[in-house]
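User: My collaborator sent over this chain with a note saying "see what the structure looks like." That's all I know about it. Can you take a look?
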Amino acid sequence: MSTNKIPALNKRIDYLDAVRAFALLLGIVFHASLSFTPIFIGWAVMDISTSKAVSIFLLVSHSFRMELFFLIAGFFSHMTLQRKGLASFTKSRLVRIAIPFFLGWIILRPLIVSAWVMGGESLRGDVYILNGLKIGFQNVWQSPHELFTGTHLWFLYYLLMITGIVLALRALFALSRELNSTLIKHSDHVLVRLVNSRFLWIILSMLTGICIWFMNDLGMDTPDKSLLPHWPVLIVYCGFFTFGWLLYRQQFLLDQFTRITKIRVTLCLISIATTVILTDYQFDEGHPNRTIMRAFFSFSYAMTMWLLVALCMGVFKRFLNRPNKIVRYIADASYWLYLIHLPIVLWLQIAVAELPFHWSFKLTAISLLTIVMSLIVYDLFVRSSLIGKILNGQTKPRVLL
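Assistant: Without extra context I'll predict from the sequence alone. Here is the result:
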């Protein structure tokens, strides 16, 4: 379409860089919050200070943070493909996603398992660090059926799968030039009609809500237990990735999709409140209207998801749509921060679990310490090294020294 407005291929879109960094940093705070829930959820450790507010934060933040990441990933993936070509794009995806996934699992999983061991010991009053590390490293090779599972790196595995699906479909459609042209034309037309429709949020929420209905847990499942695809999860993330992929072709639609209005904000608040209220009914399996409640929950959760994604992008577009050295630095570091954060978060949670401080102080301290320590390591040892080249596509100069 002639109305497409695609910027120069080498130009960074600063606010989308910031959005991607926000989604990853929010994941750090999300994991840091898990020890402060008032109900034991199977996390490595449970703090002596808990709050219902933490449970609400977890519910809401989990509803959109990874969806936001996958939408931005789809957008930037299409941009990279257009800029580098298929061969270079495929190579860059393998280097920047597959290598961190495999090496990250080997290095990080023993540390994560050790935290679970030490967390269990802390419930009995003693923590043995060396014993936890020993069991953690032994577990890696004694559980071959769990290879490449059991960490927060599952999102890289799903990103690889979705990228492969998109490239396979693209290659299949390219076999017929006429079919490919027709599909591009119709997909562009559908996206324009959808984004400009007054029923946009209802349509998206109904489609996504069907997948939410088939989740095992409340809201989005975390598919970290198996390499077999969790189909409802895969479909949702594939949908957001594809939405971002198609948005790159018609970037003029970003203004409409990310527009902040009173109606959208109000609708978002209502959907959040509805989701929170209906959450309690999901635990009551004997409730006579549980099926209806679950249907409403699935719809409200999906609407919360889409509206928070769009409004979050809108906020960043309004306030960070210009070059900023600090924001760009954090955006570059955010991938490393998310990869490395979980063992640090877990160990810090165990360290403070029995301390007589308010949960909000502990949560803030854990989040900030994790980010600061990871940033220092990033700047001194990663940013200008081979690791930095793998994660960021190129080495960059240090800032601290």
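A starting point for your reply to your collaborator: The CA atoms of residues 35 and 46 lie 5 Å apart.
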